[in-house]
Amino acid sequence: MAMNELEANAYHWMVDMLESIEVGLVVLDLDLRVQTWNGFMENHSGITATQIHNKVIFDVFPDIPKAWLTRKVDAVAMLNIRTFISWEQRPYLFRFRNTRPITGIEEYMFQNLTISPLSGPNGVVEKVCLMVYDVTDIATSKRALERANEQLEKLSMTDRLTGLLNRGTWENLVDAEYERFRRYGHTTTLVMFDIDHFKKVNDTYGHLAGDEVIKRTAEVTKRAIRQSDSAGRYGGEEFGIILPETDAEGAYIICERIRETIERSTVKTNVADITYTISMGISQLDDRPENYMQWLQRADEALYKAKEGGRNRVVINK
Predict the structure, then answer these.
(1) Distance, CA of 192 to CA of 298 (rounded, Å)
(2) What is the pLDDT of residues 204-228, one digit of tens each?
(3) Among 91, 214, 243, 253, which residue has the fewest nearby CB atoms (within 10 Å)?
(4) Where are the domains of the chain?
(5) Which spans of this chain does the record mark as coiled coil (predicted)?
(6) Nearest alpha-carbon partner for 85 in 65, 112, 62
(7) What is this structure's pTM?
(8) Predicted local distance difference test score (pLDDT) of residue 96
């Protein structure tokens, strides 16, 4: 076989391979005009090589970050080195829809990108090659794992029934708020409260109905507090709230809002419609508590005074 024929066959095989591989190949000149556009790119973009040839890539794909890609291409051409961009750095360069049935939960194709210099016979870089890899499967799996880990972390910090912080997490925040006060002296107040006669609710209507009462209490509390506040379920029917940058009088207003809302509300259950009340104790932090546990105790003392005073009321421990 003649040499020219061998070279022609080799060229044909190479072109056929470049057209059929499951990797996007895009060759750009240094003015970022498209010189090569393989079958992968045609299939996912719907644009043929003939249609895009010699066009500036940004004119066809205006959503590509122009300054970013230009800077990357200039660096590759100037330094004559290859660069790699992971999907974790930039999810995709070309906004192609995800067409994989297994990973169809993602709307767009996640891509890794390699930019390589292409030199002419004189060794000077004349073009760059973009290799686009579909890594949607990898990205989907990792993102799903991250979401699962976030959910597990959230579950480890929150009470399952109410969605409030659990006791351990909330107590840690009380300790941190106590230390913040010791260091900076910022005003901060603690609230402890519980559901009046909750044992009677459970004994009369059952524990499932009791759970609905607890959930309603948590919902009312979450709606009444600010984003900077922290509410937690301290025990069965006992709750706590940390109110940073709030004095006892400000806390009293918030607590009255919660107490009145609960007093006026009715919890509808399969057993009966339940009305109930809560008692609340407030303790603004000062220099007397020697640790956060003593601060908690002062709020608890105020709560007990509210109960001894007839329940369904708010008491400040001064």
Answers:
(1) 9
(2) 999 999 999 999 999 999 999 999 9
(3) 253
(4) 3-143, 158-316
(5) none
(6) 112
(7) 0.58
(8) 92
Residues 258, 255: Cα–Cα separation, whole Å: 5
C-alpha 15/C-alpha 38 separation (Å) is 9
3-143: which CATH number, 3.40.50.2300, 1.10.10.10, 3.30.450.20, 1.20.120.530? 3.30.450.20
Helix (H) / strand (E) element for 18: namely: helix 3-20
Which residue type sits at 165? L
* Residue 192 and residue 281 in contact, taking contact as beta carbons nearer than 8 Å: yes
- The CATH number of the structural domain formed by 158-316 is 3.30.70.270
Tokens (6 digits) for 25: 């190949």
Q: What is the pLDDT of residue 141?
A: 79
Q: Are 283 and 299 in contact (CB under 8 A)?
A: yes
